[in-house]
Amino acid sequence: MKKEKKFTTIVLCVLLVVALCLSACKKADDVPKDDKKTQEQVEKDGESKKEEDKDSDGEDEEGKEQDESGEETKDAKKSDIPSPSVSGKLSVSGTRLVDENGEAVQLRGLSTHGMAWFPQYVNEALFTEFREEWKANVIRLAMYTAESGGYCTDGDKENLKNLIRNGVEYATKHDMYVIVDWHILSDNNPNMHKAEAIDFFAQMTKEFSEHDNVIYEICNEPNGGTSWSEIKAYAQEVIPVIRANAPDAVILVGTPNWSQYVNEAAADPITGYDNIMYTLHFYAATHTDSLRNTMAAAIDAGLPVFVSEYGICDASGNGGIDEAQANAWVQVMDQYKVSYVAWNISNKNETSAIIRGGVDKVSGLTWDDLSDSGRWLYQVLTRDGSNLSGNDGAAGGSSGNGSSNVVAKSGDIEATATLANSWESNGQKFYQYTLTIKNTSSQACQSWAVDVKFNGDISLSDGWNGQYSAEGDTLHISSVDYNGKLDAGGSTGDVGFIISGKAGLEIQ
Questions:
Q1: Over residues 364-378, mean pLDDT
Q2: 59 catalytic per annotation
Q3: Which among 221, 264, 350, 414 is annotated as catalytic?
Q4: In three state form, how does the secondary structure of 325-374 look?
């Protein structure tokens, strides 16, 4: 009996084990085939999941913002300079150029000379330098219409259009805005070649219809007595052609007397179209307070102004330089958030060319390769002259110490200054400072003002994002309309200035 019971028990145990195995197999068979994974597959999937998580949480290649450590990757770092990747498609709001979020932006860059004469400067390496080293965010492609080699005279139309295509490609690739400039000059009146202009812009806007970074300048400098009514009539025929393919693109319209009489456009602006701006051109050694006041008055009257060409010499593009007037222009343009594009990228033997005559390089520019205009422009665009190869701090200077200290208080307003750079030029010692203005109170303020005192008399060379005046050893600084309001505990940066004074000049 014992043996029988033992045998029976063993049989039952075996049957139970078999039943359990059969049940497990059936459950396994019930699992979808794709979900059955070998150990190798599991490991592979684990690695894939890690890569997915990496792409999702901390991007590691192009367009990625953070790696797993939370640090920005190289390709994800975005400059605070307005650019297509940062600001997107531009538009016009009131008197200002604004980004896709409606925030005011400023384009600052360079214009080519006539591309028919200096095609070699439309190259990717040089455009890369302008973006990365010069901090330019716009390139103007100047295509003459009537001169020798002009589009409407004896020029090679296809070659000129290819130069524009290349320029747009390079600017787009390197995150810049680009202006396609129908550069009338000796033809005086844009209506002279209106039919060619219509055909040209119809083709170009069709080709660039997918580009959000292209701006169209439809007549460079009307002159020779051409009236605003004639310019306006021309614009009213060309603008619809552009709008057919580029419904939202910013369009620049020239004004009478070599694009100076913006007051006439302000009195009778073009209606029925959005995203229209009006150009003003100046050359600092010729055009001073009077034209600046004309520009300011036009803007105050509601006209959106764009300085698509300027130089720091006289109106011929040659002659002597007036840096004081040039700096005064920069201060006013910065105050009004007016965009500005310098003339010109070439080695032509004239003052306005940024490359010295006789320098044949078309990229890899050093400090020694630049003209006086080029050196001034480099410092303005970078707000720092110490980075270009061959330049130890803008004409022989050195970078600042980088330390920040509270340098001024006025009530609840506190100013923190950093010496960013210093250099010597023409026997003068220059100092560049950046400021952060902070409202330390528990209430918002609508404007601010501070006085910064030095250990010696100073002269103001330049200032941005503020109103500046120098008196003896004191620099008076106050807000402009777009940065005056500070919330409680709020602050504004990107305020700065350049002064000159004695060696060893310091803030007290």
A1: 96
A2: no
A3: 221
A4: HHHHHHHHHHHHCCCEEEEEECCCCCCCCCECCCCCCCCCCCHHHECHHH
